[in-house]
Every structure is written in C-alpha cells, then in structure tokens.
Fold these 3 entries.
Entry 1:
Amino acid sequence: MKRLLTTFALTTIMMGSAAENYIIQTDQPRQTIQHFGASDAWSMQNIGTWEEEQEQARIADWLFSLEYDDKGQPRGIGLSLWRFNLGAGSSEQGREAQISRGTRTECFLQADGSYDWTKQAGQRKFLRMAKERGVPHFLAFLNSPPVFFTQNGLATNTGRGGTLNLKDDCYDDFARFMATAMKGVKEHDGIHFDYLCPVNEPDGHWNWQGPKQEGSPATNREIARLARETSQALQQQGVTTQVLVPESSDLRCLLGIYKTDWQRGNTISTFFSKDSTTTYLGDIPQVPRLILGHSYWTNTPVPYMKKVREELRDACRKYGIKFWQSEICIMSNDEEIGGGGGYDFTMKTALYVARVIHHDLKYADAESWSWWRACGGDYKDGLIRVWDREHRAQDSKLLWAMGNYSRFVRPGAVRYEVSGEEDPYGLMVTAYQNKDRRWVVVAINYSNEQQVLTLKMSDGKQYRWKAYRTSDEEGENLKPIEENDGRMKLSARSITTFVEK
C-alpha cells in the first residue's frame, strides 16, 4: 500500500502539482445567467457590405454558430446576445461630424422627419445572420441622440460639459425615434430587440471630445427623464422592448463618485433608492430593476478587481437589483498584457480576459457579460481581427476563450458556488446548471504548469464529463478532448469547459 501511494505521489508531481479538489455546492445557487454577447460597432457596417459572402458567413459562424464539425468541435462560440449600435447620423455629415471616419454611423431618421430603412445595411445584415444562427436576444444601444436633436448639431460632445447633448424640447422626439427604430427594424428585418440602452458611458470623465467617436455625457436626472420618456414612447407604439440604464463607463461610478461629480455618480442609489424622488426608476414600466456597467479600468491590481466587484454585488443586493457587465476591452492600464495597443492572437490576452469574466460572474454576480467589439483592427478590442481593405478576417484565442463560457453556459443557466482553492494566477473554477439540468464547469489554468483538477458534487452524485479545451496549442480552440469522470490534467495556460454527458 505504501508503495502504491508513493507511486501515485510521484506521478502527481510529474503531472505538475498535487490534485486540487473542487466541490460544486448543489444547494447554493447564485445568479441566473441571461446571456453572453458582443457588439457590431463599428466594423459590421463595413463587413456587412463586403462582396465576399463566404468570408461574411465565416465570421458569422465564428460568432454565432451552435453547430459542431465532423470531429465534434464547435464551429463557433454561440453568442446569445448581439448588441446593435443604433446610429446618430454622423456618417451623413462627413468631415463636418468632427468624428473619425471609421466610427461614424448612419441614422434611420432624415432631416425632413422621414425614415430611410436602407440605412445601416451592413449592420442589419449581421442582425439577420445572427438570428439565422440561433442568437436568441438582441440589444440596441446609442452613443448619441440623432444629430437633429443635439444641442451642438453633432453626435460628439466636443468638450461642451457634463450634461446630455440633447435639446431640452427634444426628449420626446428622441424617445419616439428610438421606439420607431425598434418597430421599424422588426418590420423590415424580423428582429425584435429585447433591450434598448438610450445612453452609453454617461459618467465618463473624458466628455467625448472630438474628433473620435459618437458620445455624450448625461447627468442622472437627465437619464431618469429620458428613461421615462422612452418607456412612454415604447408603450404608445406597442413595443415591448425594455429600457436599460446607464451603461456606466466604470463600476466605481455605480457605487460612488469617481472622476466626475455628484450629478453623474452614485448611480445605483440614485436610480433605485426610493429616497431619490426625482430620479427613482424602480416603478417605471419596461424599466427593469437592473443596472448596466462596463468593467474597464477595474481589473488591476488583481486583489482590487475582486474587492470592487464584491462591493458592487453587495450594493445590488441592498437595493434589490441585478447587474449586467455590458462592455469591456483591453485598456492602457491592463499592463500585465501590455495594454491595448497591437492585436494579440495568443492566450496571453485570452487568459487575462477569462480571469475578468470569472471575477465578474463569481464576485459581482453578473447575469450578462459582453465583450466590446466582435471585430476590430490592430488593437486588443476585437474578438476577431479584420483587415477591412483586404476583406478578410482571422479568429483568435480570445474568441475561443470567451466561447468556453458563451458556447456552453446558455441563457437561463444558474451559477452555483464552488468550494476549492482560488488563485488568480493559477486555477479558477465556476459551475453552472443549464435549463436542461446538465452541469457545466469552466476551469481556467492561468499558470505556466500543468495542473490536476478533481470535480466533486456536494450531493454525492457522480457524472461523466465531456471536455473542451482552448490553449496556445494549434487547433485547440474549444477542442474536444478525452471524456473523464471529473479528474483531469489541465494544460498550462489553458481554459477547459466540462459538460455533463
């Protein structure tokens, strides 16, 4: 017996480390996962008009497909939410827009008050391609009101201050535009938008100074007024889309005042405390008890990443609301992977982002998680790298790493607590039960060494598992690997998803 134990110990050391036990606490459910998503900004307005339909289809398959190839490998990451950038009309203004050409957008609304439903054709093609491939949920978001309604006649703020770039007598006009757009896209493209976000990053301290992109700050009082007007406009037109706020630029603005002032901070308490009589949104039709924020800037240092998310979770519980992480990419402060500049096809960025997903889901109880851009250029902001002039695209380990979650953790899944060692530079494990009652476990091995993982259930049940791995090895993009009984060697610098058989 002693010899057998010694042999096992030696084998374990050769495999990389002692086995780590993780127990899924089947009596400790946490949040319900609604979806995983990405946005069409700003690339799909070009990609959707390429003549190379085969390349378009390949991109759509990577993003949306739930199919498998003849070797059992997923063809895509199965996004369950697609974010559509509803344009403000900077594209029609050309250079006068004071916005970089690549980030201008078209607008359905015309200067004479009519609607042109040929606009945003490329983006709308990808809306349809997403639906054809089974994407169940759609969200429309705006960076600016249409230029006809803004105070400066532009879709960018140009440093005009921290208030909403919207004429005071145009709140109802803006709301009617959004309701009409929701109705029009459904009539012309067959897409029902589940959600609508009227403002994006209204608390950003940079104030969207041009020339760069569409955007506008907004005070909490302005957001509350706009949410009420939008709710009323949707009801008047018989549109059931829900209104979501505020797509905060920084989680810290949801909790307090961060690089702004009292008018644009303390968002959770401002909108969902009944004491906030002028801004309370908890009783507005089609405005759910839900807060949206972006995980930019809060991912380092690593201990702080956990701390701020726990604070956010506790604040949401206090006010009885849910949290969605609705946008993130790599920024300059993400120094561990060299900041945002230069595209990275490797696991370096993929693992870093997987760690953020893990923290947002486990510690902030995020019910939805979205990456920023589906496709991008030479910057760490796209799941897919595109060369627009050449009309070609290439997938990345980041894409497939997100797929370890999005492809297998489906809408309606419930996250359960997992007990075991948590190491942001080693093993990180989360567990979910889909609506079909099948378990899914995602295990991140951030370390440079192979690790041994053992999965157990607190109720004593035992399962066989299929496993899918993403790593820097060629071809390991959600690659199906050997079935197992919950004990498995995890490759160095890899993400492995276990799916109950």
Entry 2:
Amino acid sequence: MTDTVYMARALQLAAEGLYTTQPNPRVGCVIVKEGQIIGEGFHARAGQPHAEVHALQQAGKQANGATAYVTLEPCAHYGRTPPCANALINAQVSRVVIAALDSNPLVAGKGQAMLEAVGISTTVGVLEAEAKALNSGFFRRMAGGLPYVRVKTAASLDGRTAMQSGESKWITGADARRDVQKWRAQSGAIVTGIGTVLADNPSLTVRPQDWMDWRYGEVVQPKRVILDSQLRMPLDALILQTMGVIIVTLQSVTHIKVQQLQALGVDVWCFESSSSLSSKINVLQVLKKLAAQGVNDVLVEAGASVAGAFVEANLVDEWIMYFAPTLLGSDAKPMFEWPIQTMAQQQKLQIADLRIVGHDIRLIAKPR
C-alpha cells in the first residue's frame, strides 16, 4: 500500500509534463526516506534534466539509503542527458520502485539491470497500467512502430459534422473548442485533409491564451500534416503562416506548387497511392513516417473522408467525440465515410469516459 501511495504521487508529477515532453515520455520521481518525501521531480521537456535528476537534487545527501519511486524505468544510455540509472547509483539509494519498464530498445530492462548489479533492490509493476496510460503513444510507437492515433470529431446529436456546402463553424461551443486545445497540446502531430483547410482555413495550432489554467511554459507546437493528393493547398492559407507544416501528396502529382510550398518552409512528402485503383493517400505510410520522426501521439482533426480512411485502415486507437445538442438533418455530412453493408462489419466501441463540457457532450471511446 505504501508503494502505491508514493507511486501515485510520482504519476501526478509525471502528468505535469503532459503537454511539453514530446517526443520524450512523461516521467515523475519521488524520493522517500523514513516515511517522508525528501525529493520530487518530473521531466518537463526534451533536452532538460529527467525526473530523477530533479528529485535527487532536491533530496541532496539525504538520498543515501532512500527509496526512489519512478514512473518509468530509469534510462541506461547517453542521449541528450546522462543515464538516470547512474545518477541513482551515485546517490546511493537503497531501493528503486518502477511503475513500468521502458520499451525503448536502448533501455528495455537495462536500467533495472544496472541498479541490481550494484546491489540496489528493485520492484517493478506498481501502478503499471496507469503509467502506461500516461504514455500510451510512447509505448505504442516503441512496441509497433506507429503513433497512438486519436480521431477527434465534433458533431450534432444526429452524427453530422458539416452542412452539404461544407459549412461547419461552429457546431460545438467555446468550452468544447477550448477542451480540444488540450488534445492538440499533448499530440506530436495533427492530421487533417485539404477539404478541411479549404472549408475552414484553420491554423490548427495550440493557443495557450485560450486556456484558463495554462502553466506549462513555452508551447511545443505539434506538426500539422495535411493530406492533399492533388496539391490544392492555397499559398495564402492561414496554416502556412506558421512553421512545422507537412503536406502529403501523391508521387503522380508533378506541380510547380511543390517548389512554391517548399519556399514557404513547408515539408512536402510524396507517397504512392493506397492502391493501383485509388487516388487516395496511404495513411499507414504517413503514420510510419511520423513515428520514424519521433511522433508518439497523432490527433486526426478532419472531415468525413480522412476520418473514414483511418477507420477503414483499422488505425484508430481512440475516439474523442464531441456532440452538440442540435440536429443538422440527413443532408448534412456524416462523421466519416466508411461504407459497410452488414451488421457483421460494424466496429464496436468501449466507452472510456463520458462527460458534459459546457453545453456539449464529450465521449471518449476505444475499439473493443
């Protein structure tokens, strides 16, 4: 029970880095001696000291003989910072409690082995599920080479996301739109389609000034990825006025606009179509390339066509659905294009969370 209490505090600390650590995992550390917390820390952003270092600095010499609670296995390699396993060894802690072993091949049990080799006892698995949930994207990428994909939709109660003309501002209210900012902030990339850009002219940036509780320092803006198979992107689009934009198109498209976009600082990716009979972009290829660039979490904010492509490819890990108390009618556009003909083809979901946000409903669900 005592281990659970201190690990729960370490997880609270780790969550302080929810919006700033990417592509690194969120990690918290608590150092305890004689029933008292003598040091705490969390990893704030890539390149800065890890959670263990902050906690050890706070504990000072008292760390000798103490127990360290860490939400992720201490790193065992030299990256932008030295190994945390060495820091714990040098501080002469007597025990390390680890919520989850690191799935990064550079660590993957090596940190625990380093500690055990010098006589520091370790315990693994305390609040493991909670620790993995906090870093679902990191574990997903390390295990399967793909980011964790959330699809966000904003719809009427009858499941419609836009009028037939494309008009969609605004279905949900201001509170729901502010809530979306937090999902953007914890994502390494936002994926949308050219249809959304042409209809809404969004920036898809994180706007901390919209948050009443922003306290996380400088914003780490996610990459903005636009699927644009025919390169219809207007050169004066609002989204192109900020850095970190990637436009994905097809190799068959040869256009002077590629050079024009690159001159604006846009990264243009040219992929093969999803099949020889299709002009659609292969979204699996897009996810693989994003993962190779260290993106752990992807938020899909798109219209019915792009959202449907992720559903059809079975690439959705989580749904973030906002429903406004309004009806848009049968001629309005659906949440996603995914034509199926039989009940056997349905995709059943498990509801993970349901709550009221302002005047709207937010539902979080995962495929069973």
Entry 3:
Amino acid sequence: MFDLLRDPVAFVPFAMLIGLFVGSFLNVVIHRLPKMMEREWISQAAELRGEPAPETERFNLAAPRSRCPHCGHLISALENIPVVSYLILRGRCRHCSAPIGSRYPIVELLTALLSGYAAWHFGFGLAAAGALIFLWAMIALAFIDLDTQLLPDDLTLPLLWLGLAFNLAGVYTDLPSAVVGAMAGYLTLWSVYWLFKLATGKEGMGFGDFKLLAAIGAWLGWQTLPLTILLSSLVGAAVGISLIAFARHGRNVPIPFGPYLAAAGVIALFWGETITQRYLGAF
C-alpha cells in the first residue's frame, strides 16, 4: 500500500479523495464548533451565577445527526456524499426542496484540491502529512472566522504545538526557527493590537489572530512571518476598501483578519521560500 502511494499518479488522487471526505467533516466543524463554544460559555456563566446548567440536547461534532435546517429531515449517508450528493440533489433538500448552501461543496472541493496539490508538491512522506493537517486547519479557521469572527483555541493551540512537533524532525524548518516563529508571530500582532488600542482606544483585532500567526510561525519558521504579514495585510486592505467602496460596508463594521492570515499561511507553505528568495534577489 505504502509503496503504491509513493507514486504521484496514485498519491495525488488518493489525497484528493481523502480531502473530499475531510472537507465534508470540516463543514461540520465550521458549523458546530462555534455553537459548542457558545453552549460552553452559557454553561460556565450559569455556574458562576450559582445556577444549574441549562438542559440542552447533546451537541458535539458527532451528535446529533446532520439534518436540514428548514424541515429537520435527517441527512442519510447517500445524501452526504461530498459534492456528488449536492449535484444529484441539485443543491436542494430531498424532503422539502429548500436550497442547500453552496458553501458545502465549495469547502469540500477546496479541501480536495489543496490536498491533491500538497501531495504533488511534497510527495509521499511526513512533509505531505503535516501539510495536509496544516491546510485542513487553515480552511476550518478561515471559514469559522468569516462566519463568527472567532478563531477557536481548540484549533489554534493544538495547531501550534503540532507545528513544533513536526519541526522536531526539521520537516519544514529547524526547531529554533520554529520556536522563534511561534514567539515572534504572537508578539508581533500582540504589539500591533496594543499600539492600535493605545492610539485609538479601540481593539483592532482579536487574540485569536495572535495565536494563528504564532501557529504559522511554529510550522514554517520566523523567516516566513514577514511574507505572511505582508500578504495578509495587502489582501485584507484591498478587500476592506472594496467592501467599503462597492458594498456599502460600514467603516466601523469589523472585518475578520483570520481568513487573510490563513491564505497567506497557505501561500507561505508552498511558495514562501521561493518568493522570499526572489524578493531578496531583486536587491
């Protein structure tokens, strides 16, 4: 089995297939993890007030079964095949014909494509395995932040420690660079946060952004942080200005920064060293 997967002709389609099913699971994570966090906060608040925790239906990543939000129809296994079921059902619930959001197949396809590219880029081995974990986490965090402006510690902190663990073997960078990357990633945005707050009295970003950049630094080393910050800032600024200019997005309405950090982290994973060398070579 492993000998077969060493061939890119087999490994790339295999990674894409796995990516499709992981993408389906990521849709569950994106939808349910913020709700799980909210329930936990409500329970903790009730405990602090000395009140019993509210009784609610068991709710986690495994239960209850997925269902149509419009009619409550339970989604069967045949209706939950990544992308295929969406196309067969023509993007509608089989029971009530309510539209199914296009987000679901988009996340599945994005996960599959990035997984296949990671398999082709790194080849069979530890680097590809780590890249898949990194990419899947970036996708989940980006879409959760888009929906809720939250970057859950349940994802960012394990991601940070996994980056350091992979780099114990020097998979993406040496361990000192990974440790410095985690420290510098956190402290850079932490400093920006406090400078902005002292200057304006407002919070310019959330603490989750610090942790996400720290995780990227732990995986890819401190050398990729300037590129990551530059790319995410440029794209974030361009999108923010476009929203204000063309979509009547209020200037005081916050724009999540996590998706731009995640996208920049993905670019740095695949092409960070090449971009940095070419940029430095120009001078």
